[in-house]
Amino acid sequence: MASRSRLKEIVNKGELDMxxxxxxxxxxxxxxxxxxxxxxxxxxxxxxxxxxxxxxxKNNGKLDPTIADEVAxxxxxxxxxxxxxxYTHWFQPLTGTTAEKHDSFIQPDGEGGVLLTFxxxxxxxxxxxxxxxxxxxxxxxxEARGYTGWDPTSPAFIKEGxxxxxxxxxxxxxxxxxxxxxxxxxLLRSMKALSKQVGRLADxxxxxxxxxxxxxxxxxxxxxxxxxxxxxxxxxxxxxxxxLFGKEPAKHQQMADHYxxxxxxxxxxxxxxxxxxxxxxxxxxxxxxxxxxxxxxxxAPIFENQNLGVDxxxxxxxxxxxxxxxxxLACLLxxxxxxxxxxxxxxxxxxxxxxxxxxxxxPGENPHENERFLVMVAAIIKAVDNYSDxxxxxxxxxxxxxxxGSHEAPPAIVSIYLGEQLTDIFEQIEKGSATKSSKxxxxxxxxxxxxxxxxxxxxxxxxxxxxxxxGSKFEFRAVGSAHSLAxxxxxxxxxxxxxxxxxxxxxxxxxxxxxxxxxxxxxxxQEIIKKHxxxxxxxxxxxxxxxxxxxxxxxxxxKTTPEALEVMKDKRIAELFERHKVLSKKExxxxxxxxxxxxxxxxxxxxxLAADMVKTLIVPAALEYTANLAETxxxxxxxxxxxxxxxxxILKDVASNxxxxxxxxxxxxxxxxxxxxDKIRKxxxxxxxxxxxxxxxxxxxxxxxxSYAEMLFIS
Length: 715
Ligand code: ADP
Ligand code: MG
Prior knowledge:
The chain contains 25 helices and 17 strands. With 715 residues, it is α+β, with helices and mostly antiparallel strands. It folds into four domains: 1-29, no CATH class; 31-182, Glutamine synthetase, N-terminal domain (Ubiquitin-like (UB roll), Roll), CATH 3.10.20; 191-583, Creatine Kinase, Chain A, domain 2 (2-Layer Sandwich), CATH 3.30.590; 599-712, Four Helix Bundle (Hemerythrin (Met), subunit A) (Up-down Bundle). Strands 9, 10, 11, 12, 13, 14, 15, 16 and 17 form a nine-stranded mixed beta sheet that branches. Strands 1, 2, 5, 6, 7 and 8 form a six-stranded mixed beta sheet that branches. Helix 13 (367-386) packs across helix 17 (486-512) and helix 16 packs across helix 18 (517-532). The radius of gyration is 29 Å and the shape is globular. The two termini are 34 Å apart. The protein binds adenosine-5'-diphosphate (ADP) and magnesium ion. Adenosine-5'-diphosphate binds at residues 216-218, 220, 300-303, 349-351, 359, 470, 472-473.
């Protein structure tokens, strides 16, 4: 093994280059090395403490306070051995990003020196002075206390800095009365609600429980990479994450030659580094590839427990940006950094592992397993139809508004794709024994018949559906690339829990009445499909026909964030979240407040920046060019004594677009003083048209911003 000798060589030379070291170690040797996982804990804890903590983690239970000090001390000892000097409670405020405040482990020893200490109390609870986070009125500043609390179900990890390391402890973040101020608290609550209902259903269906049911998540993350120099030359990218102006290049994604293409060496170097960093953090990263747009890529993990899946995605978004910096690149996570080419999303692959330890969205091998599968899919159909508006609200943001419904991403209309075969099965169930004409040539009885094998990777995979069954899980594809996955999963967990709860009630009644459970399940699935089949659509979601058809079916179509968020004011939604103890009315209202305000703020600062850029960058460049042109016209006409018609035409073109740009900028500035966000966005679109036209006229050396062609193709 050459790599081993190389390792020795490095160690002997004393040149410990971490990147090189990890490169020549095999993945199992360093996977999870920066995580305080069960394996590591075993080495640092007494047998008693280890047993107690691992039970807590497995059962989502409460931590035994008598072991807290021992656990904290073990964590510190481990972290210090990895070079850590500080710890932080790592949490997820409503900004949708992560937050941290560092404390060092030092404690004066009274003799002029220090000890390194970390107590159980410090591990379990923190009180960051975090009064500046948005709380939507939940936490007026005079009672601004917010507490972070340890989430033992997501393991602590080490973040390596350029000069040291920090122990990060995943925490939830609540107000002094326990009000959720973050995204993790309601996520954990919704996971609990779902687990409870799935357990209840398992019981009714006679499925033996070995464990608690839990939701699983695999988040596919899309992103752009551009050269960092270009990034710094674009103030719009630096400040808003997207280009506010930019002319489509002649060649972009027409040939689809980037998708799954050979990966350029600078990009693969970034990807290798990223995979390594994520593996060290214990995230099971699996795939990497080029996406449709030039400059666009994707990374995806193997699915995990949902809580961990969310944390790993949050961490991934952070690590991506750091690794990009190291490679002289900028990683763009915005949903629509470039107009005219594909935007970026995040496919939310969701399923449930039941109390039997099996995936409940995998069609089973016997009638009994099929029953749990069919009931589960029926519950999801009901849930999505009842709450498609809430799902839409859950993925609403200023960034995602630029992407949804523009023929490259799911439309703003939420519908379900089941595939031909599964649709046929539900149609058979709906028609009951009255028909023999279906494709399978018979009728299907829930809990009695076997299902025909469903293709896990059917060739007719529908890429246009926002909520698609893909063999063993549902894929919610409308999530934005910059979003936290917590939001959509809180909603999916809760609405599915609610639908299962309804089903359980009916089954419980049947059981009391000594009725046959299979027959009752059959009837329930039949009724659900009759009532909710309008949500199923297997066709092309990008067509105008579907928009019309969806309207006929009464499915909501909310094009913008403000429209979509209104549903959060609905009594039905408040009751849903309260019923399952996921969010109180007050907590829901606070989120409505934060999200609407965030949207307003983004649209307004983007508008202000656009106006600034036009005045200080675009117009000066256009003026310089018009001056050149005027000079040229003068000399040509004085020499030739004829009209320089061609040049005069160019000048006319430049001047009229410049005037339009100046005009729209004035309008924009007036609108920014109080007009609606819709109005601001409309003016920004008109302004952009004039500016992009100018970009096509003004010489490249004078144009003050890197072009799309440069940014998308040079790396
Ligand atoms: P695709 O369906 O896009 O072709 P894959 O089958 O590889 O691709 O899955 C995409 C993502 O879905 C991966 O992150 C994968 O781990 C995840 N996934 C697979 N099974 C499940 C499941 N039971 N629960 C949640 N996510 C899952
Ligand atoms: Mg996918």
